[in-house]
Amino acid sequence: MPIQYLHQPHYGFVGGVHSLKPQFEMRGSNIYATNFNQIMQKNMPVYEVRGSQIFSTIHHLDGPSSHPLYTIKGQNIHTTIHNSNHDAVLPAFELKSHL
């Protein structure tokens, strides 16, 4: 399965710094922080994809989640009500096959 990159879909968001560089990369059913992500642990899967739902793992800063934090809808990744940054309208990330 090819690597897919998780890009932020828009400039600026409350409480953080936006980057045109991908923050995460999805390889198979695992999502890893990229070198452009200054917060998350590198080289360990911080999220796990189960179907169209994304859960945090033990390598995530907040530990593993028992409920999905994100859901994949086409090429967009949206937060769920279990995510503290939940937005019912705007996607949190866009999936792209390139940096």
Structure description:
With 99 residues, the chain is an all-beta fold. The protein has one domain. Helix content is 0%, strand content 34%. It is built from no helices and 8 strands. The chain has strands at 4-7, 24-27, 30-33, 45-50, 53-56, 70-73, 76-79, 93-96. The chain has an 8-stranded antiparallel barrel with strand order 1-2-3-4-5-6-7-8. The chain is globular and about 30 Å long. The protein starts with a strand and ends with a strand.
Shape: globular
Q: Can you give the helix content as a percent range?
A: under 10%
Mean pLDDT figure: 87
What is the string of helix and strand elements? EEEEEEEE
| Number of DSSP strand runs | 8
Give the N-terminus to C-terminus distance in angstroms. 16 Å
Please render the helix and strand layout as text.
Layout (H helix, E strand, L loop, with lengths): L3 E4 L16 E4 L2 E4 L11 E6 L2 E4 L13 E4 L2 E4 L13 E4 L3
Antiparallel strand pairs: 1-2, 1-8, 2-3, 3-4, 4-5, 5-6, 6-7, 7-8
Give a brief rundown of this model.
This protein has 99 residues and is mainly β. The protein is 0% helix and 34% strand.
